[in-house]
UniProtKB/TrEMBL annotation, chain A:
Protein family membership: Belongs to the SRP14 family.
Biased composition annotated in UniProt, kind: Basic and acidic residues: 103-114
Pfam families: SRP14 (PF02290)
Keywords: Cytoplasm, Ribonucleoprotein, RNA-binding, Signal recognition particle
Biological source species: Hevea brasiliensis (Para rubber tree)
SUPFAM superfamilies for this protein: Signal recognition particle alu RNA binding heterodimer, SRP9/14
Protein name (record): Signal recognition particle 14 kDa protein
Subcellular location: Cytoplasm
Biological function: Component of the signal recognition particle (SRP) complex, a ribonucleoprotein complex that mediates the cotranslational targeting of secretory and membrane proteins to the endoplasmic reticulum (ER). SRP9 together with SRP14 and the Alu portion of the SRP RNA, constitutes the elongation arrest domain of SRP. The complex of SRP9 and SRP14 is required for SRP RNA binding.
Description of how the protein assembles with itself and partners: Heterodimer with SRP9; binds RNA as heterodimer. Component of a signal recognition particle (SRP) complex that consists of a 7SL RNA molecule of 300 nucleotides and six protein subunits: SRP72, SRP68, SRP54, SRP19, SRP14 and SRP9.
Residues annotated as transmembrane: none
Automatic annotation (TrEMBL), chain B:
Family statement drawn from the similarity comment of this UniProt entry: Belongs to the SRP9 family.
UniProt record, GO biological process: SRP-dependent cotranslational protein targeting to membrane
Region (Disordered): 78-107
Keyword RNA-binding: yes
Species of the source: Hevea brasiliensis (Para rubber tree)
Function: Component of the signal recognition particle (SRP) complex, a ribonucleoprotein complex that mediates the cotranslational targeting of secretory and membrane proteins to the endoplasmic reticulum (ER). SRP9 together with SRP14 and the Alu portion of the SRP RNA, constitutes the elongation arrest domain of SRP. The complex of SRP9 and SRP14 is required for SRP RNA binding.
Any single Gene Ontology cellular-component annotation: cytosol
The entry's keywords: Cytoplasm, Ribonucleoprotein, RNA-binding, Signal recognition particle
Annotated Gene3D superfamilies: Signal recognition particle alu RNA binding heterodimer, srp9/1
Protein name in UniProt: Signal recognition particle 9 kDa protein
Molecular function terms, GO-annotated: 7S RNA binding
Length: 120, 107
């Protein structure tokens, strides 16, 4: 398990997506963590120190796992970059064609499309 | 495995699950390019909520959910995500209050 800084993590994540286009999966897990062991946490709670939480992000392609942790200050920037990567790579999902070229009356009436009935 | 069909219900219940137990709740995303499938899972090790899709529009919705989770997890379960969740419904009212109305005054 490789713990990286947010930027190298994003680079590795990108390459993971690129390598798994033909075959394979990419899993990304988000979890809140203080990154401290239970003993340390108990000590800190007993001493009255506020516990600092970070968001732990893990990614794997089944063979390699990478991870990073993001604090409240850098999470905005990280989530913007992360969203960009996802948008760029999730291209195999189906796009719903609302504006159908075929005129099929009554088929898609539920979705309230922008069909204007033309009556000559 | 509990697959939720409604996106809004999935978001609502995931946020609730997280707030109830922030330390053990995790959000997992699985993407298979070869199959064109995306599966989201939120679990606190007791209860599990899943959502699967093959639609590109759900990827956009998932990005918003990612924002919600990032905020909740890094800032804490009490973080204000109402702005993030309410974006779908009230695009014009919320957000930048300082700028006022977008429509030009005085034609």
């Amino acid at each position: 398990m490789v713990l990286l800084q947010p930027d190298p993590f994003l680079n590795e994540l990108t390459s993971m997506f690129e390598h798994s286009t033909e075959k394979g999966t990419v899993w990304v897990t988000l979890k809140r963590s203080s990154l401290k062991s239970k003993v340390q946490r108990n000590k800190m709670a007993a001493a009255g120190e506020p516990l600092e939480y970070r968001c732990l992000i893990r990614a794997t392609n089944g063979k390699k796992t990478i991870s990073t942790s993001v604090g409240p200050k850098d999470h905005q920037r990280f989530q913007a970059s992360y969203a960009t990567i996802l948008k760029a790579h999730m291209t195999s999902l189906k796009k719903r064609e609302r504006k159908d070229k075929k005129k099929v009356p009554g088929a898609d009436k539920k979705e309230g499309g922008s069909k204007k009935p033309k009556r000559a | 495995m509990v697959y939720i069909t409604s996106w809004d219900e999935f978001v609502e219940r995931s946020a609730q699950l997280f707030r109830a137990d922030p330390d053990s709740t995790r959000y997992v995303m699985k993407y298979r390019h070869c199959d064109g499938k995306l599966v989201l899972k939120v679990t606190d090790n007791k209860e599990c909520l899943k959502f699967k899709t093959d639609q590109a529009q759900d990827a956009k919705k998932m990005e918003k959910l990612n924002n919600i989770f990032f905020t909740l997890m890094s800032r804490g379960p009490d973080a204000d995500v109402s702005k993030l969740q309410g974006k779908n419904r009230q695009k014009h009212n919320q957000g930048k209050e300082g700028e006022g109305n977008n429509s030009f005054v005085g034609c």
